[in-house]
Amino acid sequence: MKLFLLLLYFIFNFNIVYSDTDLLFYLDSAFKNNLKLNAERENLKATRQDINISKSEFLPSISITGTVDDTNSTNRTNQSGTNLADTSTNTKSKKISVDQKIFQGFEGYNSLKKSQLKANKADYKLKETEQDTIYLATSAYYDFIYKIKSTEFNLENVSLFERQVETDSARLQKGEITLTDLAQSESSLAGARANFISAKTELLTSKTDFERIIGVKAPEKINENFVVKVNLPKSLKQALEISQKNNPKLLAAKLEYEISKKNVDIEKARLSPSASINFSKSKNDDFSSSVNKTDQESVKATITWPIIRGGKNYSSIKKSKFKRQQSNFILIDVINETKTETTNAWSIYQSATSVLKATKAQVTAAEIANEGISLEYDSSNTRTTFELIQSRTLLLSAKIANAKSQKDFILSKFKLLAILGNLKLDNISKS
C-alpha cells in the first residue's frame, strides 16, 4: 500500500520536476546565476534603504560628547615682573544633546515620498531585468537547438554527397555519366563540407553564449521536443491594453515623472521656514579657577527662514521644473514607444506563425521531390546530376529554414509576452 501511494505521489508531482534538458530548468538556472539580474536585486535592496534614511529625518538625533583638557602653565610673571608659581588644570566635561526637527516646510515629507517612489521604480527595473533574463535565456536555449539541428543537417548533407561522389565515380567508369557530372558532385561535396565547418563554428559560438547567459554548462544533448505553453492575448487591441498597464519600462517612466514632481516640491520647501528644538545637559569638572564643578541644562528652539542665497534657491526650483518637463517628455515618448513595440511584436508573432506553417509545407514538398529525383537518378538517366544536387540543396535549405522558423516562432511569443509585462516563470508551463 505504501509503495502504491509513493508511486501515485511521483506520478502526480512529476510535472514540477524539471529535466536538465528542459527550458524551465535552464530558465530557473539563469534566474539564480545571471550576474546582471543579481546586480539589479542588490540595487533594489540598496534603494529601499533610502526609505529608512528619509524616515530618520523625523526622528530625534542624540549625541554624546566627552572632553578631557590638561593645561600646564609655567614661567608666569605678574605686571611687575615677579615670578608666579606654576599651575596645572585638568578639565573634564560630559555632554548629551538631543535635537528634534519640528517643521521643515514639508521637505522631509516629500523626501520620504520620493524615496518610496524610487524604491517602486527600482522594483520595476528589476522586473524588466528579470524579463530580459528570461528572454535572453530562452533565445540562447532555442538558438542552441537551432545550431545543433543545422550542424546535423549539414553533416547529413556531407554524408549524402560523399556517397554520391562514390556512386558517380563508379557510374563514370561504366560510361553512364560524364566527367562534368562527377565534377559537379565533387564541387557540391566540397561546398557541403565548408557549410558543415561553418555550422560547427556557429554551434560553438551558440554554446558559449548559452553558458554565459544561463550560467551553467551547456548539455551534450538537449530536449528538442520540449514545447512551452504561454497565455497570449487574442487580439492586438487586447495586447495594447495590457502593455499600457503592465509594461515595466512604461511604469518606471511614470514613476520617474512622479519623482521629478517631488523634486520640485522639495526645492520649494527649502524656501519655507523650519523649526527645531535642542535639549542638552552637561557636567564639567574643574570648570574654572573659581568653580570646581558645574551641571548645566539648556533647551533651545530655533526658527530659520532662508530669504535669499544669492539666487541659488530660486535657480534650484527652476532647474527642478525643467527636469520635471524633461521627465514628462520622456514619459510621453515611452508611451508611444510601448504602443509601437506592442504592435510590432504582435505583427512579428502573427508573421512567425505563418512562416512556420509555410516552412513545414516546404520541407514536406522538398522531401517528396528529393526522394523522387534521387530514385529517378539512381534508376535511369532521366535526371541530371545538377537536378539531384539542386533538389538536395533545396531540401537542406528547407530543413534549416524550418528549424529557424521554429526558433523564431517561440521567441516571438516570448518577446510579445515581455512587451506586455507578463514574461514571468509562473506564466510559462510545459505543454
In short:
With 431 residues, the chain is an alpha+beta fold. Helices cover 66% and strands 15% of the residues. It has helices spanning 2-12, 23-33, 35-55, 107-174, 179-214, 236-246, 248-269, 312-379, 385-420, and strands at 61-73, 76-77, 83-84, 87-103, 228-230, 274-285, 293-304, 428-430.
From the coordinates shown, what is the CATH architecture?
A: Up-down Bundle
Structural class: alpha+beta
Q: Span from first to last CA?
A: 32 Å
Number of DSSP helical runs: 9
CATH class: Mainly Alpha
How many structural domains does the protein architecture include? 1
- Range of helix content: 55-70%
Task: Describe this protein with a few key phrases.
431 residues, 4-stranded antiparallel β-sheet, elongated, 8 strands, alpha+beta, Outer membrane efflux proteins (OEP)
Structure description:
This protein is an alpha+beta fold and 431 residues long. It has a single domain, classed as Up-down Bundle (Outer membrane efflux proteins (OEP)). Helices cover 66% and strands 15% of the residues. It has nine helices and eight strands. The protein has a four-stranded antiparallel beta sheet with strand order 1-4-6-7, with no helix packed on it. The chain has a two-stranded antiparallel ribbon with strand order 2-3. Helix 2 crosses helix 4. The two termini are 32 Å apart. 27% of the residues are buried. The N terminus is likely disordered.
